[in-house]
Structures are given as C-alpha cells and as structure tokens.
Amino acid sequence: MVVWATSWVSLFTDASSELVYALLPAFYATVLGLSTVWMGVIEGFAEALASVTKLVSGHWSDRTGGRKWWMVAGYSLSGLSKPLLPFAGGAIGAIILRGADRLGKGIRGTPRDAIISHEVAPEQRGRAFGLQRAMDHAGALLGSLIASGLLFFGVVQVAHLATLFCWTLLPSGLAVLLILLFVRERGDEDSSGSSAQKSLSLAHALQRQSPIMRRYLLVLAFFSLGNSTDALLLLRAQGQMIDGGLTLQRATAMMPLLWAWLHVMKSLSSTRGGQWSDRYGRRRLLTGGWLVYAAVYAGFALWSGALAPWVLFGIYGWYYGLVEGPERALVADICPDSTTRGTSFGLYHLVIGLLALPASGLCGWLWQAGGAIHGPRLAFFTGSALALLAALLLPWALQGLPASATQKAD
Q1: How far does the chain reach from its first CA to its final CA, in angstroms?
Q2: How high is the pLDDT of residue 244?
Q3: Whole-structure pTM over 0.90, yes or no?
Q4: Exposed, middle or buried by CB within 10 Å (0-12, 13-18, 19+), for 116?
Q5: CB of 132 within 8 A of CB of 237?
Q6: pLDDT of residue 393
Q7: For 362-367, which contacts have Cβ atoms below 8 Å and span 24 or more sequence positions?
Q8: If you placed Cys at 133, which of 76, 270, 290, 333 could pair as Cys (CB 3.0 to 4.6 Å)?
Q9: Which domains does the chain have, with CATH numbers?
C-alpha cells in the first residue's frame, strides 16, 4: 500500500513539474533573455541544492523518524514555488525560485526512498523502486502532453507562459493530500525514532559507511560530472527542429511532446529495469545503462537533423529505466543497517546533485566556447567519455559485495 501510495504521489508531482520543465529553456531564453551558461548554472545550482538537502533530510529522518512529515514539507514547498517562477524577473530570481523548488525535492526524496526500502523484502527492492520511477515518469508524460496540447492549440502562447505555471498547483495539491491520507510508516519508523537513531550524529553515520559504498560513490561522481541538465538536451533539440524548418512557436510546442516521448520510454523501461536488477544483478544493469548513456551523448554530438532528437530521446529513456531503480536498490543492498540508510540515500543523492552544478556549467561553457557548430559536439563528447569511464570502473567499486546482495550471480 505504501509503495503504491508513494508512487501515485510521484505521478501527480511529476505531472506538475513537467507541465513546465520542457519549456524552461524557452522561458529562460525568450522571457528572461539568458544564455546557455546561465541556464546551466541555474539548473545545476538547483540540483546541487537539492542533493545537499537530501543528505541532511536523510540523516535527520534517521534520527527523528517521521519520514512522512519530511515528505509533506518537501512536496508542499515544491508545489508552492513553481507558480512564482514567471515573476523571477531575471537570473537571480530564477535561481532563488528554482532553488526553492529543488529544495523541496531534497527535503522529500531521501525520506521517501527510505520508507520504500523498509516496506519490501531485499529481493523485491528493484521492482519497488522501478514501480515508483515508472509512476514518476507516467506523471511526467501526462504533464508534458497537457503542456504540448495547450501550446499546439494556442491556449497558451510562448510569450505568455505564466498561465501554464499556475496550472501546476492542482496536481501538487493532490500529491500532498495523498501523503496525508495514505502514506503510513512501519512501527519501527514512527515519529519518535529509536534511541540508536537519535544518538547517531551525522559524522558517526558517515563514518559507518562501508568501503564499498565509498567506492561506489566515487565512481558515481565520475558519471555525474558528465551528466549535465536535460534542459541543454532540450535546447539542442529545439535548435535542430528550427534548423529543420519549424517556426519558433511550433518548435517550442514540440518540446513538451518530445519530453513526453522520453517519459513514455522511461515508464516502459523503469519497472522492467528494476525487475531485471532483482533477477540478473544491479551491476550488470548499471554498467549497461551507463554505456547506453555514453552512446546517446555521442549521438547528440555527431547526429544532426530533425529526426535525431526523437531517436536519441527514445534511447535515452531506456537508459533511465536501466539505472534509476537499480541505483537506489543498490544503495539499500550496500547499507543493510536501517539506522543509517537514510544517510546512505542522502549521500547517493548528494553526489549526483552536487556535481550537477559543475557538470551543467561545464557543458554550457564548452557549448558556448566551441561555437554554434563545434560547441555542442565538444560538450556532449565530454559527457560521453565520463560515462564510459564510470562504466569501466563500476566492477572495481563493487568488489567484495556479496553475490546475494545484488541477486543472481552478480
């Protein structure tokens, strides 16, 4: 029940977020007049802030229990900040409001993952996290289709996006209501918390992380340094479509549709990816997924034309399905101690998000420094190379992890 409830919460929340996410590059460029460097900085800062917050919220949810109320606070903050973005006025305002949105994500994400990991047996974790990710992507698909329809039929114009941002309030409110009504924590995770949880400091919790966890996070850092914001992928796709003959209005309207296509593939692959990791092993799924990522970024560097974004975004969706559930399940496999598992998930999210700022800033800078033709190639080839390096290092990172921890001869 809890796994399904949190999955529906994710669906409504992502429907809210994706109503506007695919339009952020157009909003930044046409409404705020920002460069690709500023886009990378804004989105990178927002994700980095979310990740730092995930470590803190994960640790404090370990110490205090009451993970449900961390979720309520985080989802509420995100829901209230998005409608204010049209009033940003410039780069600083955008940083503050996008930061508030991602701060809410940081507050809610780690406690939610910890609740899910406690609700299922170890051999079903991949499937549970895969379901949550599939519902998350289904919500993103729904939000993207609604946004695309509103633009295609002229209900919302590119120059007047404020109305669309206001629509995000409805699904956000439904998500918070679902948490209040249906998310229940197990008895050993009630709001009082255990004495062991209360006495465990953050420094102590960090010291208790295993060498395998430390190596895994190091390899994840290499991958994350090349994992720039998807807003830059959308910006490249928009440019390709305009070069292919579409008007700015039509190309902008295609962005939510392209984003919806990505989430179709994410939804189709997420549950299956989690199940495959339960059956065949987390390492195999992660290695394969990171290799797919490297190939997709190389494709964005080399392939041009109006068809390229549709093919590459479709394959990119399978990358997400192969890695998102298994990555989270692997954290729980490596950290069987429930009193520090929230901290472990916080570290995992910290590495991914903290490096989002340099990764996105580096991609934007390489893009701008290399010019209109060579810049995108240089930026995406860099991301491809870092993903390939991470895939090659992953077996080393997981040395010593029992085969039973990641299922089936892994």
Answers
A1: 30
A2: 72
A3: no
A4: buried
A5: no
A6: 94
A7: 362/40, 362/225, 362/228, 363/40, 363/228, 363/229, 363/232, 364/35, 364/36, 364/37, 364/38, 364/39, 364/40, 364/41, 364/228, 364/232, 365/37, 365/40, 367/36, 367/232
A8: 270
A9: 2-181+211-405 (1.20.1250.20)
